[in-house]
Amino acid sequence: MGWLVVLPLELVAAAITVRYWDTSTNPAAYVAIFYVLILAINFFGVKGYGEAEFFFSAVKVLAVCGFIILGIVLVCGGGPQGGYIGAKYWYDPGALRNGFKGLCSVFVTAAFAFGGTELVGLAAAEASNPRKSMPKAIKQVFWRITLFYVISLILVGMLVPYNSPELQASDGTARYSPFVIAIRNAGISGLPSVMNVVIMISVLSVGNSSVFGCSRTLVALANAGQAPQMLGYIDKRGRPLVAIVLQMTFGLICFSSASGKQGVIFDWLLALSGLSSLFSWGSICMCHIRFRRALSVKGRGTDELAFTSQAGLFGSWYGVILNSLVVIAQFWIALFPIGGSPNAYDFFETYLSVFVILAFWLGHKIWKRNWKIFIRAKDLDVDTGRRELDLDLLKQELAEERAVLASKPLYYRFYRTLC
C-alpha cells in the first residue's frame, strides 16, 4: 500500500517543487510530464530503471556532498553574509519545537523519508549473484543514510531556525525547503535554484523507485497466492506489466493537484504512506525473528545462510519495539493534536493508515477464508525461494570464503566488516 501511495505523492511533490519558478501554470501540466517520464522509464524494464537511478543517484550524491561542504563553511561563518553560526539556533529559539510532543509529530514524515531501503531486498530477486552483491549493498545503505541523510539534517538544523518565516509558509511550495532556505539565508545567488532542481530530481527518483518496488511486491504477492494471479504476469523482457499498469493507474490520483489543493493532498497521501512504512519494517523485523526461531526449532543454524544481519535478533527486537512505540506515539498525537483540541479531521489525517491496513488484513482473511492468526515455528517453511538448494555445498563455499577473508590483512577485514 505504501508504494502505491508514494507515486501520486511524489508527483504532487514534484509539481509543488516547480512552483519555485512558475506559479501561474496549472500544476497538472507538470504532473502529466513527470507521469509520462516515470511510465516510460519503467516500461524499459530493469535496465531502464537502473540507468535512470544511476543518473538520479549521481546527481543526489554530488549535491549532498556539495551541500555538506557548503554547510560546514556556512556554520563556521564562511558565507557571504559572514558571522559564526555554530549551534546558536539550538539555543534560540531551541532545538525542539513543542518539546517531546513536537518530536513525536514528525515521526510519520521521518518514516516516509527513511522508507525505501527495503528495495535492496527486492533487488535481490533480480540480481545475478545476490550472495555476493546484497551483503555489500545492505552495509552501504547504513553509511549512505548516516553520511548523506543524518549529517545534512544536522547542518540544516544549525543553519535554519524552526521559527523561520519562510519555513512556516502556508502555501507549501518548494521555495521553503530548508536546504533552499539555508542557501538563501547565506546570500548566495543562483545556488538556491540549483538545489531546487536537485530536490525535484530526488522526488522523481523516489516516484520511479516506488513503481519498481510496488510492481515487484505485487508479483511476489500474486505468486504467494495473496493477490490476484494476473498481477504475477511477467513478459519475456522480465517486466511485470500488469502490476506496473495497476501502479500507474493508482498514480492518476496525482492529477487531483489541478484542484489547487496540492498541500492538502500531499498531507493525506503522506499520512497513508508514512505509517505504512512503520508497519512494513515492523513486519520485516518480526519475520526475521520468526525465521530465526524456526531455524532453531528445526535444529538448523545460521551457517547455512549466505548473509546474516550484523545486529542479529537484537536488531529485529529493537525494530519491533521501536516501531510499536512510534505507532503508539502517533495515536497520542492524532487524538490530542498540537495546539488544538481532539477532532476527527486531525485524527484521521494522522492515523488513517492504521485503519486502511486493518481493512486490507481483514479483507485478506475473508477472501482466503483462513482465520489462523499464528503458525507454530516448527511448521514454518524456511526453504521456499532458496537459490542454493544444496545446503552442504553452500556451507562449504561459505567456509572457504570465510577462510579467504581470514587470510587477508587486518585493515581489509575491517573494511569488509563495515562495507
Structure, described:
By secondary structure, the protein is mainly α. It has a single domain (2-387), classed as Amino acid/polyamine transporter I. Helices cover 66% and strands 0% of the residues. The chain has 15 helices and no strands. It has helices at 2-18, 27-42, 45-75, 99-105, 107-114, 119-124, 130-159, 178-185, 191-223, 241-250, 262-297, 312-335, 344-368, 391-406, 410-418.
List the helices and strands and how they pair.
Layout: H1 2-18, H2 27-42, H3 45-75, H4 99-105, H5 107-114, H6 119-124, H7 130-159, H8 178-185, H9 191-223, H10 241-250, H11 262-297, H12 312-335, H13 344-368, H14 391-406, H15 410-418
Helix pairs in contact: 1-2, 1-9, 1-11, 2-9, 3-7, 3-9, 5-11, 8-9, 9-10, 11-12, 11-13, 12-13
